[in-house]
Amino acid sequence: MMFLRKEWVLCVLIGCLGLVSAAWSEESLEQQNQATSAVIPAPVLSQGLPEMAPAPLDVAAASLKKDAVCTRCHDESETKPILAIYQTKHGVRADPRTPNCQSCHGDSERHLHGDPNQKGRAAPDVLFGTKRGTSGSYAPSDSTVQNDACLSCHNKDAKRSHWEGSTHQRRDVACASCHQIHTAHDKVRDKRTQPEICFTCHKEQRAQIDRASHHPIPEGKMSCSDCHNPHGSIGPKLMKRDSVNETCYTCHMEKRGPFVQDHEPVGEDCTICHNPHGTTAESMLKMRPPFLCQSCHTPHSPVQLSLTGQTPPSPNSLGWWNGAAITQGRGCVNCHSQIHGSNNPNAANNPLFR
To answer: Is the dihedral of CA 194, 195, 196, 198 positive or negative?
Structure first.
């Protein structure tokens, strides 16, 4: 009997300790949740913790308070969707790097409180765009002023390190000429809609890309920025790589070589034979063979004669190097099929054979 009573007392003690431990755990968890919710907004918590720690609530609230100075007038009634910026990366208030209205447009004190020396409301300090606003009231700021506002944040991006001195910068192209900030869908950043933005200036390339032989840009499989860096580069024509060939080799690596027999124009510049924006000849060739080949390899050229060791034919000769015979053959690539380079070691005197 005494043994059973002791065992019963021990069970009661263990149960009490368990209840105390559970209560302490719930209180600790509740305190932790309260501390977390004080820093992370409820919508963010419902989606799980982000990769980067969000800004404290006071920072986000202060930023929204600055925006409220502008959004009390610039609301849903605007022709352009001004408030749609909160659907973009420029409106994520949980990130302390996110700018507010004044970060881009300036404090604009004269616009807010008026200017005694000016009739009507003054323009904001920085106004973006390429033409007068939708209201027709203000002209956009100079492109340099607009771009300085953008580069105050984006100047550390490696893709924009060569903006100064680039073709677009020298021709006073503003960031807002291509980009739309107050929208969830920036057309120039979408592979399917980017070409129509580029073609507003590059109209010749618009016509070329609609020809029969072209890169799959109209089909939405490629974009202009796959080859070009519009923010500047050290390569020609704003190429993403150091040269035209290096840019082409990012996709056409089988043409890189090295080969036993090299075709000199291939190593020099792909655009000697190809027009990458589109042509009417197959493989985006500037002309179809044999006319493309004969733009360099004329029937009587010293290059052709040195390849065979022949002496120049007499005017009455009708041999193989007769111009009419070569033109009528119309099949240079029937034999010279490896036109980018050949690995045939026996083709020393007749290069680029299979």
So the answer is: positive
pLDDT per position as a tens digit, 30-77: 544 444 444 444 444 444 444 455 555 566 677 778 899 999 999 888
**pTM, rounded to two decimals:** 0.72
List pLDDT tens digits, range 54-65: 555 566 677 778
3-state secondary structure the chain: CHHHHHHHHHHHHHHHHHHHHHHHHHHHHHHHHHHHHCCCCHHHHHCCCCCCCCCCHHHHHHHHHHHHHHHCCCCCCCCCCHHHHHHCHHHCCCCCCCCCHHHHHCCCHHHHHCCCCCCCCCCCCCCCCCCCCCCCCCCCCCHHHHHHHHHHHHCCCHHHCCCCCCHHHHCCCCHHHCCCCCCCCCHHHCCCCHHHHHCCCCHHHHHHHCCCECCCCCCCCCCHHHCECCCCCCCHHHECCCCHHHHHHCCCHHHCCCCCEECHHHHHCHHHCECCCCECCHHHECCCCCHHHHCCCCCCCHHHHHHHCCCCCCCCCCCCCCHHHHHHHCCHHHHCCCCCEECCCCCCCCCCCC
Which residue in the block uniquely carries the two structure tokens 């807002």?
176
Cα 34 to chain centroid distance, Å, stands at 42
